[in-house]
Amino acid sequence: MKEYNAVFTCAEGCDEQYPLDEVVYKCKKCGGLLEVHHDIEALKDKSADEWKKLFASRSNTTAWPYGSGVWSKKEWVIPDIQDDNIVSMFEGNTNLFWAKRFGEILGMKDLWVKMCGISHTGSFKDLGMTVLVSMVNEMMHRGKPIKAVACASTGDTSAALSAYAAYAGIPSIVFLPSNKISTAQLVQPMSNNAIVLSLDTDFDGCMKIVQEITKDDSIYLANSMNSLRVEGQKTISVEIVQQFDWEVPDTIIIPGGNLGNVSALGKGFKMMYELGLINKLPRLILAQAENANPLYLSYLNGFKTFEALTPKKTLASAIQIGDPVSVGKAIKVLKDFNGIVEQASEDELADAVALADRTGMFCCPHTGVALAVLIKLAAAGKIAKDEKTVVISTAHGLKFSEFKVGYHDETLTGVKSKYANKAILLKPDANSVRDILEQELKKR
After folding, report:
1. What's the CA gap between 379 and 184, in Å, rounded?
2. How many angstroms separate the CA atoms of 444 and 442, rounded?
3. What radius of gyration, in Å, describes the C-alpha atoms of the chain?
4. N or C: which end of the chain has fewer CB within 10 A?
5. Plot region of 234 (φ>0 → left; ψ -120 to 50 → alpha; else → beta)
């Protein structure tokens, strides 16, 4: 096999380069974020068909570590890592769900939902964390004096980090905003024996603290400003096209908070395009909650300016971020992919979840933001009825059971619960049950 290599380069265009095993998160010359740069010319030693066949031969097998949806693309992720140092739970290979009934409601026959939440910790964050923790494990085996990994989180990142770190036997530290994440999300890092620090601030405040703490190079930063995470998340793009027999969808809708995921998907599509596996790029649509919408406001002025803001509370808690780290990368990707940014209110996102759930899904509120934006743009004619459209579902709905109970009990603040479906309390009397069933079945 030909030797492939990758290095950190400055995303702002500096000529700075750093090896992937260096503890560095920003360009030392200009302070810009870094990205992992692959030697595309070297990767061209295989034809597009050869790459397709190689990926197909690995995915969903038990061959270590290539059965993973991420590590089946190892040469495109971290090519020179030792297989024995990879920390994987065979993440990825998630369902591309044909949203048949939901699509029929919107008059769309080619609507799909990429179920990234069907993963070990219940969110797409596993895809990036397998890469980051694997690289930390490799660095430790190379003698780097790393003693722990740390992140700020609105829930899902901390769950993924703590699980993968526990699997590798590496201590993890998570900084969470107090009383701003679901119980299910809080208990995950606790269960995986992370050092859990609950701070009386929001995510942006936690992010400031973790950046300060990780100035000590022995504590490695695991947030999405670390571009190793992008390498795992970009495989979502490859999986989607692979699942469509290498046909590129017209439109992809992605919920956005810290904005690493839209950057990652864009990178995946660009790599496939440059290596000849696809011959066009999709349009990317970024969906934000109205209560945490700094990129949407920037989009309204053509991205001429961007201003961080203090986000209001949103049911989509994982994207309740007002100062996203990856904003520069996200804007560049959206410009390159004919992108749109749209927002969804609390009412819209909650109703979108409930409507989708009525068609067989079980969505998280962040997926609800993307579905609400889909509904809005389809109604406005900005997404055509015949477009092959994919919505990225970022987490499993079971992590947000309090949100769902509150919706159907009609106790969510500011939400009218258009599709509420309350449990019916009855005495154990067959005639009473028959009467109610007759009434209820007429409504269905």
Report:
1. 35
2. 6
3. 22
4. C
5. alpha
